[in-house]
Structures are given as C-alpha cells and as structure tokens.
C-alpha cells in the first residue's frame, strides 16, 4: 500500500465548508443553530431570547475594535447561555431530526462522492465544528447513510435523558474563536486514529478555521478556503493564509481531485 496514502487525513469545518452556503434560489442557507433559532421548533420565548443573544454577541464578534481575548470570552459566554436556554426550553432530539429532514442544510455538490472516496480509501475525516447543535452533524450524516467509521466529529454536544431531552452540556465548549485551543490531543480516541497521519488537507470557510491544526505535528499541510466575502482586503487575507482559495459556491469536486492526486503520490 502507498505509504503516503497511509499518512493522509482530512480536517474540516462543517457549516458552510462541507455544506452549501446558498439555496437554489441564491439565498444564504442558515447554519444549524440559525435554523433552530429562526424556525418554529421550540417556544416563542426561546426564539425571542435567542435572537436577543444573537444581536448582543454577534455585534461583539464582528467588531474589529474588540480585542481577540475579549471576543473569545464573550463567544463562550454566548454559547453557554444559549445552551442553557435550549435545555430550559426543552430541546429534544426530535427537534434536530426535524431540521435535518427539512433539508435546510445540504452537502456541497459532489459531497457524497467526497465522503465515499474517503470511506473507500479509509482516510479519516475529522470534522471540527463550533456548531451550537453539533449533535445534528452526526444525525445528518446518518440520515444520508454516510456516518461511516472513518468519520470523527469534534463539536459541541448535549447530554440527553432517556426521553431525548437535552439535560446537560458536554465540555469543553467550542466556539469559532477558540479552535486554536481545541487540540486534537485533548480527544485521545480521535487523536490516536490520526497521530501518524501527518499529511493533512484542511478545509475551512473562515480564517479562524486554520486554527484547527494548532498543536498537531504535521509533515505536509494543504489549506483550502472557501471564500464568500466581497472586500478586497478580506480576499488578500485569505490569499495569505490558505494555499488554495475556492469560490464560496464551489463544489467539492476540486477537493476530490486533490485527494486523488495525493493518493497517487
């Protein structure tokens, strides 16, 4: 077997990276947590409080004058408050299943082919997501029939009671700004599967997604970014940080080609 092949793994964000950012009508697709917040899945009280949190913390997240350290603390505060609200308002696994079945989220074109290739070649796919309802990622892949043994998911999750209601938060909390602290080594069951696979293809749609590789001793790293911004300075930052930039509407076909080329090294 090709020795290089045995050393490959994929490290990817989920929302907006593996999934489509826009609907067929060209409208932005919501993230999983946005779909829950904006849909009629829980109570009206939940929607009101969740939107109030969004208005408060999202402004901080996008304020260039707020120091990164302050933002990190604020983002964790937001997620903890939101998760507690979800528990209080009776989030049930059925609610997540309804979101999945509504097809509000969808893999990018050639997403199934991408997952099938990785499964066929036994290449680990580590998904690291700051999703507010990360449990839905595994549920979505299972819904597609693609939750295969080579897929490992690091995300926010809940403890669930025997009736399917969220009853507690699983630590640590992952936000879009602390992926540099979310080290693979802190997840030994996953780390042991990839520690010797030091040729890494990283996929993200945000500059902070590059932080996913922090603390991992890689040999080769190829960073691919899906860019959806409009500002020239934002594109310049992507050019400086990623090895390849794809349009936000791109399929996963170019990634399949890159993985295939790596397999033939």
TrEMBL record:
<comment type="similarity">
    <text>Belongs to the pyrimidine 5'-nucleotidase family.</text>
</comment>
<keyword id="KW-0546">Nucleotide metabolism</keyword>
<keyword id="KW-0460">Magnesium</keyword>
<keyword id="KW-0547">Nucleotide-binding</keyword>
<keyword id="KW-0378">Hydrolase</keyword>
<dbReference type="GO" id="GO:0000166">
    <property type="term" value="F:nucleotide binding"/>
</dbReference>
<dbReference type="Pfam" id="PF05822">
    <property type="entry name" value="UMPH-1"/>
</dbReference>
<dbReference type="InterPro" id="IPR006434">
    <property type="entry name" value="Pyrimidine_nucleotidase_eu"/>
</dbReference>
<dbReference type="GO" id="GO:0005737">
    <property type="term" value="C:cytoplasm"/>
</dbReference>
<protein>
    <recommendedName>
        <fullName>5'-nucleotidase</fullName>
        <ecNumber>3.1.3.5</ecNumber>
    </recommendedName>
</protein>
<dbReference type="InterPro" id="IPR023214">
    <property type="entry name" value="HAD_sf"/>
</dbReference>
<dbReference type="GO" id="GO:0009117">
    <property type="term" value="P:nucleotide metabolic process"/>
</dbReference>
<dbReference type="InterPro" id="IPR036412">
    <property type="entry name" value="HAD-like_sf"/>
</dbReference>
<keyword id="KW-0479">Metal-binding</keyword>
<dbReference type="GO" id="GO:0008253">
    <property type="term" value="F:5'-nucleotidase activity"/>
</dbReference>
<dbReference type="GO" id="GO:0000287">
    <property type="term" value="F:magnesium ion binding"/>
</dbReference>
């Amino acid at each position: 077997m090709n020795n290089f092949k045995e050393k490959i793994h994929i490290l990817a964000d989920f929302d907006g990276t593996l999934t489509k950012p826009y609907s067929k009508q060209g409208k932005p697709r919501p993230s999983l947590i946005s779909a829950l917040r904006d849909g009629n899945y829980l109570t009206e009280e939940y929607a009101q409080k969740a939107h109030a949190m969004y208005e408060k913390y999202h402004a901080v997240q996008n304020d260039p004058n707020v120091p990164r350290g302050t933002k990190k603390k604020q983002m964790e505060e937001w997620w903890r408050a939101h998760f507690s609200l979800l528990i209080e308002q009776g989030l049930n696994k059925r609610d997540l299943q309804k979101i999945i079945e509504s097809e509000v989220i969808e893999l990018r074109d050639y997403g199934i082919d991408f997952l099938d290739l990785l499964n066929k070649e036994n290449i680990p796919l580590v998904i690291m997501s700051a999703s507010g309802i990360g449990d839905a990622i595994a549920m979505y892949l299972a819904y597609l029939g693609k939750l295969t043994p080579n897929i490992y998911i690091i995300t926010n999750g809940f403890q669930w009671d025997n009736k399917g209601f969220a009853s507690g938060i699983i630590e640590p909390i992952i936000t879009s700004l602390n992926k540099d602290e979310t080290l693979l080594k802190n997840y030994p069951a996953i780390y042991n599967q990839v520690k010797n696979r030091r040729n890494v293809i990283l996929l993200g749609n945000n500059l902070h997604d590059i932080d996913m590789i922090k603390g991992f001793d890689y040999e080769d790293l190829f960073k691919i970014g899906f860019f959806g911004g409009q500002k020239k300075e934002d594109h310049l930052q992507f050019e400086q940080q990623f090895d390849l930039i794809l349009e936000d509407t791109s399929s996963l076909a170019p990634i399949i080609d890159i993985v295939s080329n790596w397999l033939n090294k």
